Amino acid sequence: MSAHDPLITITSDFGTADSYVAQMKGVILGVNSRTRLIDVTHEIPPQAVFRAALMLPELLQTFPAGTYHLVVVDPGVGSARRILAAELDGHYFIAPDNGLLDPLLQQATHSRVYELTNSRFWRNEISTTFHGRDIMAPAIAHWSRGATLDEMGEPLSGSPISLPLPEPTMTESEVVGTILYVDHFGNMVSNIRREHVKQWEGSDVDPIIRLESEGSLRFIDSGISETYADSLPGQGLILWGSHGFLEVALNGGNAAAKFKSQAGETLTIY
Amino acid sequence: MSAHDPLITITSDFGTADSYVAQMKGVILGVNSRTRLIDVTHEIPPQAVFRAALMLPELLQTFPAGTYHLVVVDPGVGSARRILAAELDGHYFIAPDNGLLDPLLQQATHSRVYELTNSRFWRNEISTTFHGRDIMAPAIAHWSRGATLDEMGEPLSGSPISLPLPEPTMTESEVVGTILYVDHFGNMVSNIRREHVKQWEGSDVDPIIRLESEGSLRFIDSGISETYADSLPGQGLILWGSHGFLEVALNGGNAAAKFKSQAGETLTIY
Amino acid sequence: MSAHDPLITITSDFGTADSYVAQMKGVILGVNSRTRLIDVTHEIPPQAVFRAALMLPELLQTFPAGTYHLVVVDPGVGSARRILAAELDGHYFIAPDNGLLDPLLQQATHSRVYELTNSRFWRNEISTTFHGRDIMAPAIAHWSRGATLDEMGEPLSGSPISLPLPEPTMTESEVVGTILYVDHFGNMVSNIRREHVKQWEGSDVDPIIRLESEGSLRFIDSGISETYADSLPGQGLILWGSHGFLEVALNGGNAAAKFKSQAGETLTIY
């Protein structure tokens, strides 16, 4: 293996019970047999563009520059939605134009965004239901073996679709955030980032954080922890997750189950 | 990595919670460290030979010629069932002789089918419960590094076991098919292929398609769509799936859940 | 690909719905792009150290010598628990010091155990919640490209944490074991190994085996089978599993479901 064999990550909502993901891999390897393929996840909830979009910045922070990323969460397949190829801070992405790349594009210091238009880089027969296999997989494989954005498409006309990600509501005395999703461990990940809680920095008084579900209080705590070990086993705590969002967690347990709570609920800091 | 390092796909009903799949991979890599391993799925329902058999043609259509495919859905492990090694249109398969390769063999234009008999290409100790690890994994690894079918076994005597896949019932006025399985998205995949609906080609009148479950009508539509976008969000539609079978789908939703239906139900065209 | 490109297996309780596993892979590939990564499983029940610990000997028996193994089941992350790097009979392991390596260490004929202490081989920023990504992943990648244990850490002071694995109770007339876990097929794996049933070897009388759940008899059989095919379809049987533990299984079905039983129940031989 050469250190220069291209790396392609794959993220989708295809699940792993069918052969959909393998079909994309077969097509990629048929175009460029030297690629090394890494699954991110295929358990994005069906058509949950927003969940995949939030995951992509974590890939930018951990994979080496020069990695290719194929992202197929594509509820608009078969319609006129565009397919994007974007170079972002040294990483290469192909994804449908439905908001998937929006958080990345907002953070990127350097980006070039193209629309894939040249069918010479696609499979001969294009189904109407599976562009991940028929357009995006062969395109990223050709890209990884040297085809250029100018050969494969055209600079995007207009802006890419933006992702309607809810932002916390900020007032002088409180920040009202939302639980975006619950991860495998039951950790409840909110949309509150460090930049939203600057007003408590250097203060003598710890902020109070309150989790409410269906209008009733489920958990309340003061202060933000840095590690699970800051609370006793079985007790809830508020901490910064590994991706920089504020989480409600449970030391040694499942917070969402214990607090009978879920995505969409309200997290308030005051 | 050389473009000629052999590619081996793996399909099984082992699930991914235990180490069974990894054990097979370890054995393969111990015999031929140059192989590149691709998971198709390990979530074939336990011992559902038929589900894996229907998946294999999709691999033939997407993976490059020269790919090896290990298929371990093996309810007869430990009994006298044979183990097959088959060369099929430039692809190489190892699977138990229980019908898994039947759909492939019926479509293949060129095939050679052997029975694995030479234990020199197996692990030293053969368990009675895990021939995937002890016989098939080392055999496919040896095959991928140059062992020949004639070294590893003998031409199959008699026919391979055939798969009892239900065919649609055809009359002059209607085609009565069956839902074979429901995929990750809730799409209901039937056994009806394009060859079964030729009588409506070029006709002015669209066929009517009716889904019945437990004897009651669940969905009815006229015409076959080419894409999900042909129906309104939340509405059912009938379309050709990416593998060539007729599907009942739901634009932006789960058809099987909405129509309270499942594998085994009846789909009629008239 | 060179046959000498290092192989790294990954075992965790991270699930596959989030990007946690991919983040570790990105970090590994950023340090050593030549590694080949193999997933064992990421479905260890959350924080079930014991389940992963029992799986590791199966990797030693199937992967080639020289394989690296990253094992991240880490309920103590963020606390003062140590992180181990161990060379065991030609395999290389990195895991938190919480009992994960205990069964391996007890069986190994040659072992060297170090504590990872040199942060030069870690990521620049160390989170308090994800040492798998920030410490263990980069460390195993550096190890796989030539860093030595003496560079990365220090010989372990004191003993590693031991795993409280229940042993069967042995009397002259009976062996009382425990169901350790239930696998994907519903096979119920006990803690009884061949060494525990020597008293029946060469005897004319087959042992009787009895499965009890919540105090009531669920299954009773005489004799230990060598293969599923020794019983009729749909019937229970007792056999040696592929890993050397005694199992309760069902020919063609799910034993745990049929016998309404689960991990923790009692299996008695007499």
Automatic annotation (TrEMBL), chains A, B, C:
Top-rank taxon: Bacteria
Domain S-adenosyl-l-methionine hydroxide adenosyltransferase N-terminal: 8-153
Family label: Belongs to the SAM hydrolase / SAM-dependent halogenase family.
PANTHER family assigned: CHLORINASE MJ1651 (PTHR35092:SF1)
EC number: 2.5.1.94
GO molecular function, one term: transferase activity
Keywords associated with the record: S-adenosyl-L-methionine, Transferase
Lineage of producing organism: Bacteria, Pseudomonadati, Planctomycetota, Planctomycetia, Planctomycetales
All copies of domain S-adenosyl-l-methionine hydroxide adenosyltransferase C-terminal, residue ranges: 177-267
This protein's name: Adenosyl-chloride synthase
